[in-house]
Each structure stands twice: as C-alpha cells, then as structure tokens.
Write a structure and sequence with these properties.
By secondary structure, the protein is an alpha+beta fold. It has 6 helices and 10 strands. It has one domain (about 5-250): Sandwich (Jelly Rolls). It has helices at about 5-10, 15-30, 40-45, 75-85, 85-90, 115-135, and strands at about 50, 65-70, 95-100, 140-145, 160-170, 175, 205-210, 215-220, 230-235, 245-250. Helix 2 (about 15-30) runs parallel beside helix 6 (about 115-135). The longest helix is centred in the middle third of the chain and has 19 residues, at about 115-135.
Amino acid sequence: MNDELACIGMGGPNLLQDSREASLAQAMDKHAEPSQASSQDQISHPYACTTAEPVELIRIFHPLIQVVRWRRQADPGMEAYLQQTPVDSHLRNGFRTVIQAGESLELDFLPDLPGRRAMAQDISLITDIYSELLGCDEIALRLEVSSKAMCPRFHVDRTGIRLICTYRGQGTEWIDDKWVDRSKLGQGSLGLADDASGLFDARTTVEAASPFDVLLLKGSLWQENIRKGAIHRSPSVIAGSGLRILLVMDALWT
C-alpha cells in the first residue's frame, strides 16, 4: 500500500468523521437550497472538483457539486497483481456482495497471489471511508470486470451517491452540464449518438478519472437532485489493453 493510503489507514474513518462533524452541518445549513445559491457560490463550488485529500470527499454534499474526484497514486504492487493471468481468469465474472458498514471484507473472491492483501486492504479502506461519509447501514459492493464499455452512452444514474474506482483500464468519463441539453439524455436522443443528438456542443470537454482515483457521482435520486446528477459514461476499452476492472459501491439504508 502506498504512503498516502497507509497514512489514511492509520487515521481510519475517524479522520473523515472529524471533518464530517465539523463541517458537514455548517455546509448543508448554509447551502440548503440550491435555488438560493449565488453566482459567487457557483464559482467557488463547481459542478465537479478534484482533490488529493480524502477528507475533501465531503464536498459531494454541496447541492451544486455532482462529481468529486479523489486523485490517488497508482500502487505498483496492486497493478502487478491485477496483471497476472490467474487474476483475469478468476475475476472474469466479477464479484458482488452486500456488507454491513464496518464489516471486514472476506478475501475469498480474490486469487491468492502476491498483492492480494494490499488489494483487499485498499478495498476495505475505501469501503470504510464511503460508509462513514454516507452514514449508511450497508454497502452494495461490486467488482466489475469488462472487456467493453458497459455504459457507452452519457447518462445519469438513478442512485444516491455512487462510488467508482477503476483499478485497471481507463477511468470513468464525465462532462460538465454547463453546455449540456439534459433533454437529450436517454430516449431524448432519438437514437442518435451523443455527439450528434445535441446533448452537448464543441465547448464541452470530456473529463476522465485515472486508474486508482476514487470518484463520487451524485445520482438523480439524491435529495433535491431530481433534475440534476453527474453525466457520465464508461470509457471505450482499447483493443489489446486487457480487461477493465473497477470497484463500484452504493450506500444502502435499512
């Protein structure tokens, strides 16, 4: 595990919890109604933001922010682990489970090869941070493995706040909605490709996460976010690049 992750692991969820208790209530009280946000507020709180600090993931709760990217360094040991042929074979069908918040993750779904423990520890770390951030009871966890783009069209998830971390392959892509016509999403495209439907124009830039980055995407089911949400898609898988492996988490409340 790299130094950044080791440092966070020592602090554990309390690192994020301290920030959550100190600033979440204040931030949410101040910006409770998106319609009341000033133009200056929109400048200081963009549609998407990138941070090197996990405590800044809390910014996803701001009503104007739809994407938060925690930029992380790739771990060479985990990269080597995921490149091994037995890992490809074992994980080809992916893995899905529901775990209780704070529950230890079993290692059985990962092939027993050098790098396995670091991989499991990283997933457990992200799980702890995510559960503390959302305050959820359970987490639906998926390790998806794909040789092609699973969701190649731009779309908004009907979820609350979803976490995605691509461990191998290209990271998830998203666009700012500043020059986007949301009516062209889904069936509104009338079957046309995204770049031909009028969904966005030439001023729109496609952003992408890097491997090992942790991405929070706010969906349309999050409170007061019904006509908003992160507009994103799966990247194209480059021929010969191997399988794309990504971690996906959704918070559950019982």
